[in-house]
Specification:
The chain is built from three helices and five strands; from the N terminus they run αβββααββ. It is an alpha+beta fold. A three-stranded antiparallel β-sheet has the order 1-2-3, sandwiched between helices. Strands 4-5 form a two-stranded antiparallel sheet. Strand 1 (34-41) and strand 2 form a beta hairpin.
């Protein structure tokens, strides 16, 4: 009773553009069927998604006399689609992180294998530098270890452009 004589626009949510409504009216006034989705507002103000299939009804003279709209509330489907998209994003992000981790583990495993075959310290340093360069692409860094013979820090490997080992402990602190 409350909507008799009212235009359907009383339930507009403001989410469908004027261009969207113009396209709908152009299609059905042109005698063609229109299909689409709306994010609408119920009488109580609740928002919901609906699928609409609107067709013109023609009179005996071929003129449009009415429109038939078949609508279905698809809020649950849209919510499920949004949840699926969010899950897909989280899964994709996790997969990328796992792939990065697997790559890092491969580099570390290879480094460990190569270090075991090194005969001199310089060879081991080159292996560590190469592995660190792969693990920390685009970053500079160094690896320093405590040396029993030469003081506190001994730079074992440095990678990246112009990166110098930075002493973070004084020799007498060791």
């Amino acid at each position: 009773q409350e909507v008799i004589g009212q235009r359907p626009s009383i339930l507009k949510s403001g989410y469908t553009t004027d261009q969207g409504y113009q396209e709908l009216w152009k299609t059905i006034l042109g005698g063609e069927r229109w299909r689409g989705e709306f994010f609408n507002r119920k009488k109580d103000g609740e928002m919901y998604w609906e699928s609409a299939d609107i067709s013109p009804i023609f009179g005996e003279g071929g003129e449009i006399t009415h429109f038939l709209a078949v609508k279905q509330d698809i809020t649950e489907r849209k919510t499920a689609e949004q949840n699926l998209q969010a899950s897909h994003f989280r899964l994709s992000t996790s997969l990328e992180a796992l792939q990065d981790h697997a790559r890092e583990m491969h580099v570390i495993s290879r480094m460990t294998d190569l270090i075991q075959t090194c005969m001199i310290q310089e060879e081991a340093c080159r292996v560590v530098e190469d592995a660190a360069g792969q693990l920390f692409r685009g970053l500079g860094g160094s690896l320093a270890l405590k040396s029993e013979h030469e003081g506190c820090l001994d730079t074992v490997a440095a990678w990246g452009q112009g990166y110098e080992a930075e002493q973070i402990f004084a020799y007498n602190d060791c």
